[in-house]
Every structure is written in structure tokens, then in C-alpha cells.
Design goal:
Distance between the termini: 45 Å
Shape: globular
Radius of gyration: 24 Å
Number of helices: 11
Largest sheet: 5 strands, mixed
Strand order of the largest sheet: 4-3-12-7-8
Helix content: 10-25%
Length: 429
């Protein structure tokens, strides 16, 4: 059998050999997986030569990651931090290192979080915290944390993404271009369960969620959305929600832009009309119909490997991989182009796509040197296709340039350029 596949199809057909092969197989796995790449000598060592990491009370109690792993969040990377944040000591948006992520879940310690509206994160004692539901309801009620946890729980995977997560030609890597989104498993109680408990009046059509922040901000959300899939989360990724992400409870509004996912949730006011809301960041909603239809993220994706600031070490087979998502539902397919959008190939989806959640994709590709522009585009279950920057500009009737940044939620295609030496840079630059 020829150990060097001549096509992507042959490589994929031999995938089972990749999964079960061992060094004892005479190096066949390496020959197949890294076709046409230089052979590398295997290291020689014994178990006694490996350095030991001591266990301490702290590492036993909660654990730490390997000191060889250095991925970290950054505040507004690649962006100028507005003076209001530096002048008043506020924490600007903190971006997750998506280029270093695996699978679809971002660790709680690396999860993106938005700017706090006050100078400090609320330090809330869960034993004293309550959630009040009032307004156009039959039985206004104050729920304690213990009350909330007595209701049936749900655990669902959802992304949260800031409306300012907008890539442009200046961004050097995925953290800068797309790092204001993360995906987590959220656990809590459906808002519909709580609203049924208090009895929503017939004329009610909206609700306002308020968080316990030093500077109060609130947004009006359609009641139909609240009765559909919104829930009050008290846990993320199997542990209590972390302080930066709203401890002890936050609202999760699947598919809507991040600001509606209210953190440190303390009050829900059910109303019979849309209310004009203005918060610290200038999110001003004047039109009820436009607001109700304009909250949702469209289909979006980004290649995380190979991507900006990374480098292909040598020629051969690689898996182009990344994340795809949509606020309108589940991802139905992802396509990859390695020639700047002239042709597209279907990528493999890793696992079953969840609604309003990140989905990992992969596409095996043989790089034979030379320059390439790679990009991904996703189609969601509604049939919507991720647009190019030019298409977005046409939609908003604006002139497109490489530095074009669309107003609102930018879900346009992000290209990465691979140079002949394997280095990867922003394809918009």
C-alpha cells in the first residue's frame, strides 16, 4: 500500500489508520498524517527523567493548568481603549484567545466578558441576593437563590457575543478580530417557568431586565422571546457563574447581542409597551419593531487555524479548523475556500450543531507552498448564508474598503493570507 496519499479523499479514507496507529507500527501513522514532510526523530527518555510537579493544598482544592499553557484574555486587543475607561478605572472589554481554543467550549477562566458599567464588579452574597419579577403580572414575587434552584433546571450550550465584535484590516489575530464571543454550557431555570409562576397579564408584551451595577442599565426585550428560550443562569461549565459573568445569576438570551444577557440579574419588569432605554455605552433603541427584529446575530464563522500570527512549519497536510455559529438557530453547513473565494469545499462539522452555539468545523488541506487566501462561510438552519464584507456594505448602502467596519453586528467573512513561507496574516490588510 502506498503510504503517501495523493488526495484529500484518500487521506480521509485512511482516517481509521490514523486513529489506531502506534509508534510500533513502524512509523506508518506519521507517513500518512504528514505526507511529504520531513521525518522527525523520536525522543528517547525514561519516566524518571521527566520533571515532577508537586501537589499543594491549592492545586488539590481547585487545580491549575500546566505552566506550559500560556493563553490569556486581553483587554481590547488591537483596539484603542476609550478615555472613559482609563479615566474612571473601568475594565474595558476582555477578549478570549479563540486562536488557542479546542472544541466548542471556552473555559470559564478564559470566557469573554464585557465592560463593567461601574468601577467595580458587584460583590454579591448569594444568600442575600434576590430576583424580583413585577409589573404586568398577577402575582409579583421575590425569588431567593434557593427558590430558583427548586425549579426544574435546564443546561444548554450558547454563545454570547458583543455587538462590537467587528473585525477589520488592523487586527493581527483571531483574539483581536473575533475574541468578544465565547461559548459555554449554561445551567439555570427557564424564564418562562418563572413567568408562569407569577402569571403574565394578557396585555403584556415586553420585559425589562435590570442588573445590580453601580451605574444601572436595562434593555427592553420582547416577551415572546422571554417565553421561548431565555433563562436565568446560575452556573456555567459545571460551576457557579463567575463574578465577571454575573455571579450569582445572569440572563441568557440565546442569539441576541451580548448586552441583552444581563449580568448580576436582580429585577425583571414586565410591561405592556416598549420602553426607550439608554445605557452607559450609547445603545439607544428608538423603534420597537426595529429593536425587536434587530437584536439577533446572523450566521458567522472564523478560521482559528491557520490564522493570523500563526505559521505553517512545512508543506503537507493540515486541518483547517475554526468556529461557526448563528443567532438564528443551528449551523447547517460550513464551507472552506483556499483560493480567496473562487471555489468552496464542504467542511466537516464536529459533533451535532446546537442552536445558538459555537460549532467546530474542520477541512483537511494539503499545502504545497505558495500564497493562498483561506476563508470560511457558514449557512444556518434558516438558509441564511454568511455574507462578504462587500455584501454587507451594499446592504447598508455604504462604500466598501478593506478597513470597512459595518454598523451593528458584523458577521462578514474573515480572510487569512498564507505567505509562501507559511506565515499567516490578515487577509483584509
Amino acid at each position: 500500500m502506498d503510504p503517501k496519499p495523493s488526495s484529500r479523499r484518500e487521506l480521509l479514507l485512511k482516517g481509521s489508520a490514523l486513529a489506531v496507529g502506534t509508534v510500533a507500527a513502524g512509523g506508518a501513522v506519521g507517513d500518512i498524517a504528514l505526507a511529504d514532510t520531513p521525518a522527525k526523530a523520536l525522543p528517547s527518555f525514561t519516566a524518571n527523567e521527566a520533571p515532577m510537579v508537586p501537589s499543594t493544598d491549592a492545586t488539590v482544592a481547585y487545580g491549575v493548568r500546566s505552566h506550559y499553557v500560556t493563553s490569556k484574555r486581553l483587554q481590547e486587543p488591537g483596539r484603542a481603549v476609550p478615555a472613559i475607561y482609563t479615566d474612571f478605572g473601568l475594565t474595558a472589554h476582555v477578549f478570549t484567545p479563540l486562536q488557542d481554543s479546542y472544541g466548542t467550549i471556552q473555559a470559564s477562566s478564559l470566557h469573554y466578558f464585557a465592560t463593567t458599567k461601574g468601577s467595580f464588579i458587584p460583590d454579591i452574597d448569594p444568600a442575600q441576593h434576590t430576583l424580583t419579577i413585577q409589573g404586568q403580572v398577577e402575582r409579583p414575587r421575590v425569588f431567593t437563590m434557593a427558590d430558583l434552584k427548586r425549579f426544574p433546571s435546564v443546561s444548554r450550550f450558547h454563545f454570547i457575543e458583543c455587538s462590537a465584535n467587528s473585525h477589520n484590516a488592523s487586527h493581527k489575530n483571531v483574539q483581536e478580530s473575533h475574541g468578544a464571543t465565547s461559548n459555554a454550557e449554561w445551567t439555570g431555570v427557564l424564564l418562562s417557568t418563572l413567568l408562569k409562576e407569577v402569571g403574565v397579564k394578557e396585555k403584556a408584551g415586553w420585559f425589562i431586565a435590570e442588573g445590580a451595577e453601580e451605574i444601572k442599565g436595562a434593555d427592553t426585550i420582547p416577551l415572546a422571546k422571554g417565553m421561548d428560550d431565555v433563562f436565568v443562569a446560575y452556573a456555567m461549565n459545571g460551576e457557579p457563574v463567575r463574578p465577571h459573568n454575573g455571579f450569582p445569576i445572569r440572563l441568557v438570551v440565546p442569539g441576541f447581542e451580548g448586552i441583552f444577557n444581563t449580568k448580576w440579574l436582580r429585577r425583571i419588569n414586565v410591561t405592556d409597551e416598549y420602553q426607550l432605554n439608554m445605557d452607559d455605552f450609547g445603545h439607544l433603541r428608538k423603534d420597537a419593531v426595529g429593536a425587536a427584529l434587530g437584536y439577533t446575530w446572523g450566521p458567522k464563522s472564523v478560521i482559528t487555524f491557520p490564522s493570523g500570527s500563526q505559521k505553517l512549519p512545512d508543506q503537507g497536510w493540515y486541518e483547517i479548523t475554526g468556529l461557526a455559529w448563528s443567532g438564528q438557530g443551528a449551523v447547517s453547513k460550513v464551507e472552506i475556500s483556499t483560493d480567496g473565494g473562487k471555489s468552496w469545499n464542504l467542511a466537516d462539522l464536529k459533533g451535532t450543531p446546537q442552536r445558538m452555539a459555537h460549532t467546530r468545523f474542520g477541512y483537511m488541506w494539503k499545502w504545497e507552498g505558495g500564497e493562498h487566501v483561506i476563508m470560511s462561510r457558514t449557512t444556518d438552519e434558516t438558509g441564511s448564508i454568511q455574507p462578504t464584507g462587500q455584501q454587507v456594505a451594499e446592504f447598508f448602502k455604504e462604500a466598501y474598503t478593506p478597513k470597512y467596519t459595518p454598523p451593528g453586528r458584523n458577521n462578514s467573512i474573515m480572510p487569512w493570507k498564507i505567505a509562501s513561507d507559511g506565515s499567516v496574516t490578515n487577509g483584509l490588510a
